[in-house]
């Protein structure tokens, strides 16, 4: 990352916790004396996006959610968001933690799937009125973000102009509304703020 200079953070997105509308689910409580205790019979399935390998965002976010909540569920991995989303629509899994999409939002509005919460510490403009997972699980917050970098050696005045221009665009109401329609919140930053964000995420031991 030292070969690149920070320009601006563009936007941030939260994960949706979803449940199939017409199915009930149950969670097992982890045993303090025996954390490896097998799941109780009939434990619900929780889908997560496996993608091209384990330990991606969906997997780690799900594990963190279960760990903080002290719950056990049966994990069902899928290779990518599309099959994961289809699984919750079809009732193959009972709960899903994933990024949003136009199709997903359409099914939430139609009532085919239920939005249980958003992976934010408080209310999120991405899903007005939805519960925040962080309000129930203190400290739980998962955010995926997008930013723009420039090659090392880019003149400081060019970086400043790009940051100012992009900040102006991201502040436009029509742009912010368009981002929200995709489940993404426009969030501009200074180069220093983006640098601090990247440093915090790659430092040893960062969650």
Q: Please, could you describe this protein's structure?
A:
With 207 residues, the chain is of the alpha+beta class. It folds into two domains: 4-12 and 144-202, D-Maltodextrin-Binding Protein, domain 2, CATH 3.40.190.150; 14-136, Periplasmic binding protein-like II (D-Maltodextrin-Binding Protein, domain 2, 3-Layer(aba) Sandwich). The protein has seven helices and nine strands, in the order E-E-E-H-E-E-H-E-H-E-H-E-H-H-E-H. The chain is globular and about 55 Å long. It has helices at residues 57-69, 81-90, 102-110, 133-136, 156-170, 173-181, 191-202, and strands at residues 4-20, 28-29, 45-49, 71-72, 74-78, 95-99, 113-118, 143-151, 184-186. The relative contact order is 0.23. The model is unreliable at 25-43 and 49-53 (pLDDT under 50).
Secondary-structure map with pairings?
Blueprint (H helix, E strand, L loop, with lengths): L3 E17 L7 E2 L15 E5 L7 H13 L1 E2 L1 E5 L2 H10 L4 E5 L2 H9 L2 E6 L14 H4 L6 E9 L4 H15 L2 H9 L2 E3 L4 H12 L5
Parallel strand pairs: 3-5, 3-6
Antiparallel strand pairs: 1-6, 1-7, 1-8, 1-9, 2-4
